[in-house]
Amino acid sequence: MNPSTPTPEAAPTGERKWIIAVAAAISILAIAAIALYPVWRAKPGGSASLVGGPFELQGPDGRVVTDADMKGQPFLVYFGYTNCPDVCPTTLAEISDVLARLPGKPIRALFITIDPERDTAASLKDYVASFDPRIIGLSGDRAAIDKVERAYRVYARKGPPENGGYAMDHSSIVYLMDAQGRFVEAFNLERKPEESAKELEGYL
Ligand code: NI
Questions:
Q1: How far is ligand 1, taken at its centre, from the CA of residue 1, in Å?
Q2: What is the Å distance from ligand 1's center to 11 Cα?
Q3: How high is the pLDDT of residue 34?
Q4: Which residues pair with 76 in a beta bridge?
Q5: What's the count of helices (H) and strands (E) in the chain, helices before strands?
C-alpha cells in the first residue's frame, strides 16, 4: 500500500450527512437563483437585454428561422422536447388556449427543442400540429441549440436512461418578446387565457 495515501475520512455520521445534504441543496438553489435572476429582473426593452438574442434554427419544411424573421410582431418562446411526459405538452396546450382567444392575430410562439438529437425539424412539425398553428417547432445542430439556450438562460440537462430512452430536466419559462425582439417578461399562464390574451394583444 502506498504510505502517502491519505487516511480515508470516517464515514459521515447521521448528523454530518444531514448537514452535507442541506449544504448541497442550498448550493443548488443558489446556482439556480443566480442563473434565473436576470430572467425575472430584466426590464422590457432595456438597452442591453440580458435575455434573448440572435439565433438561426431549422424550422418546418427545410426553412431556416432566425430572430430577424420574428421582428415586427410580439412572440412567445418556449424551450422543451417532444418526449416530455407532462410539462411541455401542458404548456403548449396553455399557449394554444391563449392564442385561440386571438384569432387571426399575427402572434407566433416558438417551441425550441432542447433535445435536437431526437427532435428533428420534421418531427417537431408533426408534434406541434396538435396545437395552435401559430406555434412553430425549431431544431438545429447542437451548437445552434446550445447558443440559443445560453441566450435565453435556459437550464436543460439529460437525465439518466429510462424505458429505453431518457428524460430531460429543464427550466420551463415562457418568454414574451416584443415586436423588436426584446425580452419583456416571463409570460404568466397562471391565469385565465382571456387575461393572458389581453396582455399579449397590448404588444401588437
Ligand atoms: Ni418538458
A1: 50
A2: 38
A3: 60
A4: 109, 176
A5: 5, 9
Cell numbers placing 70: 420574428
Determine phi and psi for 183, rounding to 5 degrees. Answer: -65, 130
Distance 80 CA to ligand 1 centre (A): 5
Ligand 1 centroid distance, CA of 126 (Å) = 17
Grid coordinates given for 96: 394554444
pLDDT at 87 over 50: yes
- List CB contacts of 40: < 8 A, sequence separation 6 or more: 186
Which is nearest to 139 in space by CA: 35, 54, 59?
Answer: 59
Please, which residues have CB within 8 angstroms of residue 65's CB and are 6 or more apart in sequence?
56, 57, 58, 59, 110, 136, 138
Q: Which of 3, 140, 120 is nearest to 64 (CA)?
A: 140
Which among 143, 154, 186, 138 is positioned nearest to 41, based on CA atoms? 186
Tell me the mean pLDDT in the region 82-110.
97
pTM: 0.79
Residue with cell 430531460: 168
